[in-house]
Amino acid sequence: MLRSLLLGSSLAVLISAAPMTVAAQVAPDIAPPPLEFTHRELSNGLDVYAMPDATAGTVTVQLWYDVGGKDDPQGRSGFAHLFEHILSRKTVNIPYGGISTMVENAGGARNASTGQDFTNYYETVPPQYLETMLWTHAERMARPVVDQAVFDAERSIVQEELRQRVYAPPYGRLQRFVIGDNAYDEHVYRRSVIGSLEELDAAGIDDARAFHEAYYRPATATMIVSGNFDPAELDRLVDQYFGDIRNPDRPVPVLERPVPTPRTQPRSVIAYAPNVPLPAIAAVFPGVDARSGDSAALDVMSAVMSRGQSSRLFQSLVYGSQVAASAGLGANADEEGGTLTANVTVAAGREIEEAEAALNAELARIRDEPITDAELIEAQTELLAADLRQRETASGRAFMLGNAVVAENDPRAPDRRVQQIRAVTAADVQRVARRYLDENARVSIRYLDESQRPEGVAEDSWKNPAPMPTFLSVPPAILPANELRAEGEREAPPAPGEPRVKAAPEIVERTLSNGLRVIVARSTDLPIMNAQLVIAGGAASDPADRAGLADFTAGLATQGAGDRSAPEIARSLEAAGAVVGGGAGADSTTLSVSAPIASAGPVGDILSDIVERPTFAEAELERSRTRTVNALTVALRQPGPLASLVLQRVAFGDAPYGASSSGLPASVRQISRGDVQAHHDRWWRPDNAALIITGGMSAEEGFAFAERTLGDWTRPADLMPRTETRAGEVRPPRIVVVDLPGAGQAAIAAGVRGPARSDPDFYPLAVANAVLGGGQNGHLFQEVRAKRGLSYGANSSLPGRAESGLLTATTQTKNESALEVVDLVLAQMERVRTEAIAEQALSDRETYLAGGFSRAIETTGGLGGFLADAVTLGLPLDESERYAERIRATTPETLRAAAVRLDPDQAYVVVVGDGQFFVEAMRAAHPDLVVIPAAELDLLDPTLGL
Q: What range does the record give for the signal peptide (predicted)?
């Protein structure tokens, strides 16, 4: 996995928000608890941090290596990231893929990531598997196997990751290549961490072995263990598995850093790429490293500029002038440098020059005028509230510590940052804005669709003219290569220890006099809360020609309520550090709020207005319509999201589940204020809703919050509304290609109809789904990625629905291999349907599902989301405790019976990609194939014109 920040769009309405009027604004008392840890260093240089938490239900083991993209050898950009993949796969005692197998069979999850400064590997497992995870890390550090088969497979997978993350999304090239190459000049961060297809092709196995020998060793590693464990036992195990690992005799290669020439003249860049639905612009400035005394002030400045809907860029460019579909400014600070980058996606029908002028005006204003006290309080509170949320879980605290050690060489930096954020003044913000938003050091970027490229302009005309630094070529490996031992000679992983069980949260329910169902579950000692209001109906209640109405209504409700305008709601909420979201799923509409408990009262007052007294002003409706259409326009040019929408329509036709819950540009353009008001009047009523409260509130505090917030919500006298049918009749199978010229990858989605979530058959089918495509041990991942390197990932899902759901297998691959991957996906469905499963394999998949569920409800938001689903789908509230039991009740016989549904001959298959590379071959293999040009696709037509 490559760690990065990408320009994106969300169809959910997200508001950061806070309580009181501006005149009376006072910062709430948000005090993130300090990180608690111990540290010791082994004689071989390995740093070990222990963060015990007896209340946690898991333990996280992380190993951070001091090697990243900046250490890629000359001519080998992307190599640290490639090696991250290689080191995850095979050791002397662990066959290829064995680490993932062990983790998932323990009910855990694992991953790894690479940045410019680090590579990390991490697992989160039940506490009894701590020793097993330590053993796997020792294996990777001291005894990895880097052979030709591993190298070839992982290089192919990384190249597919590059295609999926960079070439397939409309703005992937902008973020990874155009901005990346121009953000730095003669600096070690200049190259992209993900590299290039050409330099990855040029790499070889000798490069990989040399890279490991040069950089991977105890002295370059930091271990962090966080969660439920005995510290004394951890010390013993670390000594046992890591104490004798020696560092190589040769020192770590050190590149003499080039001295960058300060940029003293602005530069302008124009780049072109296929399938760019809306133009984008960016402004890039040199920033600071993470240890700079100005880092906190820059974070506050960035929050003032672009955090939440009261931020300056949102209010000016998106809300006010409406020249932008999205706008943001971020400060990135790493170990050796940083950048300030403003990103703007131009709104449909607006000129790029308008957006540039509006952005320039806001950059000038932050330099020329001090921010207000209210803006300062809002920004500080938002940053501290986000910090508090990150400390909620053991794994979140571990990542916070790891980033601090890597970027600042100081594990106390996160706690010190809290005080630094509190100490920032308005004068500090103006000072750093004047210093770092320097127009003479700016790179201005325009990003346009390929169709606008003038004749004769080269594809790489956007490249930075400054000389690229010359990087090291690491010396060849001199140690003998490791080989996988014969099966009978391998050291077995340690057996699990004694379980350390976490107590389940107590779930308490009460119904208010107006019929509102209230559910409270205290799930943490932190002073945070999460409240989710669930309203029955959801997108399934949308009229056929108004797809997206329920979702649009939820978003618009936050844009003016009671006597508060949309900007006033945003301003009066943001200083409380609250995050409010609204949106509709297939079966329900949800409004959620996460806030420090200190802000619960004022936030509840605003939530009350949003629910009971939304104004639905025409001007706000038009603004929301414009933003939604812009976001949908972007989403519909991405192969993956488009394939999922087409699959819904193919599988469900004119039934409500066939329509997009977020709507489509054409349907959203048809929504009137009368439609919105009528939907609200009909469906938003207390006896059709439930309020779920999780976090640090006690039951009585939660019920008091509910009564104060929504106790006066009036129940109408008319009958409750109902949706007669949602899924409709089962439709015949189809295979459809949407031809999207220029698509960087082909997205594949295949589905079969499944049961309702409340149906007992859901559980064995969930296990069958895990066998098919759950995690890295599912058949899809193994066959498509692990064995053939045809995709970065291949998985399947079975979302819960009130009526018949859709079990869906999804993946993306290069266009040329689309047919091969389609046939592989269908073959795996047939395999699960017809192949008997062994008892142990079944038990392993059940454990995988139970562990994933346990982690999903570990946070306040996750638990609240599950309880919201339980209410929506008619499940008992004790499902949070009974889920694992019901999954484990699956037998080989009941799984086989459920898997009958996985008939490839009855599957719906959709492929979205550049058809010139695969349509002819796919039609020969599947004569019933239907091809729809993307320009002619009408998702409002239930038949798709077929």
A: 1-24
* Residue 21 in this model has a pLDDT that exceeds 60: no
Fold of 38-250: Cytochrome Bc1 Complex; Chain A, domain 1 (3.30.830)
534 contacts 588 by C-beta, under 8 angstroms = yes
Pairing of strands 507-511, 338-346: unpaired
Beta strands in 721-862 (DSSP E): 735-739, 746-753, 794-797, 806-813
Residue 355 C-alpha from the chain's centroid: 28
Q: How confident is the model at residue 877 (pLDDT cuts 50, 70, 90)?
A: very high
- Per residue in 44-87, pLDDT tens? 999 999 999 999 999 999 999 999 999 999 999 999 999 999 99
Q: Cα separation of 615 and 671, whole Å?
A: 16
Q: 366 with 426: CB under 8 angstroms?
A: no
Dihedral, CA atoms, 507, 508, 513, 516, nearest 10 degrees?
0
Average pLDDT over residues 329-341: 97
Whether the model pTM is above 0.85: yes
- SS3 for 518? strand
Average the pLDDT over 186-196 and give the result: 94
CA Rg value for the chain: 27
Q: What residue ranges do the domains of the chain occupy?
A: 38-250, 262-452, 507-710, 735-936
Percent of the chain residues past pLDDT 90, beyond the cut? 93
pLDDT tens across 386-417, in order? 999 999 999 999 999 999 999 999 999 999 99
Pick the CATH number of 507-710 from 3.30.830.10, 3.40.50.2000, 3.30.450.40, 3.90.920.20: 3.30.830.10
Query: What average pLDDT does the chain have?
Result: 94
Would you put residue 372 in left (φ > 0), alpha (ψ -120 to 50) or beta?
beta
Residue type, 821: V
On the CB side of 576, how many CA atoms lie within 13 Å of its CA?
32
Residues 778 and 791: their CA atoms lie apart, in Å, by: 14
Tokens encoding 389? 């949320």
CA distances in angstroms from 200 to 115, 158, 618, 812, 850, listed in the order given: 17, 9, 53, 20, 38
For residue 154, what are its two tokens? 């992982």
The two counts, helices (H) then strands (E), for the chain are 32, 26
